[in-house]
Amino acid sequence: MFTVSDERVSLYIHIPFCTTCCSYCAFYSEPKTQWNGNLDSYVQRLLQEVILVEQNVEGFDTIFIGGGNPGCLSLEQLTSLLSAAQKKKKSREVTIEMNPESFNESFFPLFEQNLVTRLSIGIQSMQDGVLTQLQRNARRIDNLKAIELAQKARALYGIDISFDLPH
């Protein structure tokens, strides 16, 4: 066993699932549909890893959950991962990425319970034509709705915008 006593330890949790795989993305991901109900077994194995790491540190200064699209997981699955990672101490900052089409009011408890302090919305573009070329599920209206929901959740949020995309 090892123990890390540095208070600046950060944790990145990769959720490798997407509703569809975008043409430009270089991050490892698989379509959520390929897991056909086995998503729980993946989350349970990931949870075991988080618990093992958490036992050997004094807590995590920051946590980032990215992907893929963490919005492919349920509120319960995300809550169990975040609770396990913050068992010893509350993290200073916890960021979760979500694609606009996945973010909805069912995720508000993550912010209300202070399990997540910041939302990163993967907008990429506000141009419907570009979003179509990138094989994104969301359109401009979905992007605007996700921003409105983030404000309604009273979440700190940022938006991801990509440049030099096809026209």
What does this entry look like structurally?
- This protein is an alpha/beta fold.
- It has a single domain, classed as TIM Barrel (Alpha-Beta Barrel).
- It has helices at 39-54, 75-85, 108-112, 128-133, 140-152; strands at residues 10-15, 17-18, 30-31, 62-67, 93-98, 118-124, 156-161.
- The strands form 2 sheets. A 5-stranded parallel β-sheet has the order 1-4-5-6-7, covered by helices on one side. A two-stranded parallel ribbon has the order 2-3.
- Helix 1 (39-54) packs parallel to helix 2.
- The mean pLDDT is 88.
What descriptors fit this protein?
five-stranded parallel β-sheet; single chain; 167 residues; 7 strands; two-stranded parallel ribbon; 31% helix; TIM Barrel; globular; 5 helices; 21% strand; alpha/beta
CATH topology: TIM Barrel
Largest β sheet strand count, sense and barrel closure? 5 strands, parallel
| Level-2 CATH architecture | Alpha-Beta Barrel
Which range best describes the helical content: under 10%, 10-25%, 25-40%, 40-55%, 55-70% or over 70%?
Answer: 25-40%
Strand order of the largest sheet: 1-4-5-6-7
What structural class do helix, strand and pairing data support? Answer: alpha/beta
Report the CATH C-level class. Answer: Alpha Beta
What is the typical, i.e. mean, pLDDT?
Answer: 88
Q: Note the run of SSEs as H and E.
A: EEEHEHEHEHHE
